[in-house]
Design goal:
Pathway: Lipid metabolism; malonyl-CoA biosynthesis; malonyl-CoA from acetyl-CoA: step 1/1. This protein is α/β, with parallel strands linked by helices and 320 residues long. The protein is built from 14 helices and eight strands.
Length: 320
């Protein structure tokens, strides 16, 4: 059974009604074409009202949609000759992060991304997309390899955050993320980051330092989840919806704050409605970014990356 978000229930119900009428028309001699046309017109207006006026909490729910495309889904559409590489050469392999080499428009690139599961069994195997330190060290190993062989790095961000368990802390979770931040800042090849779902906390930042940062329209990017922020600010995680509105975590808000470079439009109703078309939307911005960044020499690339993060965000000074 398909997962339906609360705010889109009227749209889903109307779609199902139209589908049922079309089925009746095919299976009987009744002519319901006028009714179908009327309902399709109503559906178009309803979709506009629902999806074009989504609140921040609605986008949080969309970013968490269980059918939302993952890193591996986009790899299938965007790249050819993908060869997944495993392990951090220190401890083990973390399946919450997938990484490897591939070709994009015939040219070699390194692809790294968070990977959550599509069902309970896969989510357990991939730790619900929450990486351990060996995941970040695997990513860093691939980034350094890309730097050595002059391959652009493309990352896909989709995690609630790095795994906060005791074992991860014992193996150096915070150090692994911090090292990634430092090393990514100094890579001499183009780095493009795409937030495709939830971009949560340091777990997202561990793959998020790049020359260009893009976000899908219904993705989120924040230092903490709305539930966590509500629990800290108001001692009540049930106020997550209020926190989502306050935190400015949507793609539109972050574009205005200059935290990201561009918002990638989504298929109306969410990226899961048409993964192939959504991949084409992503392909366009990656192509344009690589065409621009590949023209720059190493010194200019590093200087512009430094300037980007030096001025990122929006600040207000208070006279005290």
């Amino acid at each position: 059974m398909k997962h339906v978000l609360d705010f889109e229930k009227p749209v889903i119900e109307l779609r199902e009604k139209i589908t049922e009428l079309k089925r009746l028309t095919e299976e009987s001699e009744m002519d319901l074409s006028e009714e179908i046309v009327t309902l399709e017109q109503r559906l178009e207006k309803l979709e506009t009202d629902v999806y074009d006026q989504m609140e921040p909490w609605d986008r949080v729910q969309m970013a968490r949609h269980p059918e939302r495309p993952t890193t591996l889904d986009y790899i299938d559409y965007l790249f050819t000759n993908f060869l997944e590489l495993h392990g951090d050469r220190l401890y083990g392999d973390d399946e919450a992060i997938v990484s490897g080499i591939a070709k994009f428009h015939g040219k070699p690139v390194t692809v790294i991304g968070h990977q959550r599961g599509k069902d309970t069994k896969e989510n357990i195997r991939r730790n619900f997309g929450m990486p351990h330190p060996e995941g970040y060290r695997k990513a860093l190993r691939l980034m350094k390899q890309a730097d050595k062989f002059k391959r652009p790095v493309i990352t896909f961000i989709d995690t609630k955050g790095a795994y906060p368990g005791r074992a991860a802390e014992e193996r150096g979770q915070s150090e692994a993320i911090a090292r990634n931040l430092v090393e990514m800042a100094g890579l001499t090849v183009p780095v493009i980051c795409v937030v495709i779902g939830e971009g949560g906390s340091g777990g997202a930042l561990g793959l998020g330092i790049g020359d260009r940062i893009f976000m899908l329209e219904n993705s989120t990017y924040s230092v903490i989840s709305p539930e966590g922020a509500a629990a800290l600010l108001w001692k009540d995680s049930n106020l997550a919806q209020r926190a989502a509105e306050t935190m400015k975590i949507t793609a539109k808000d972050l574009k205005e704050l200059q935290v990201i470079d561009e918002v990638i439009p989504e298929i109306r109703g969410g990226a899961h409605r048409d993964v192939k078309q959504q991949a084409l939307n992503i392909e366009k911005v990656i192509t344009a970014a690589l065409d621009e960044l590949n023209q720059k020499n190493e010194d200019d690339l590093l200087e512009e990356r430094f300037e980007k993060y030096k001025i990122i965000g929006d600040y207000t000074s208070l006279d005290i």
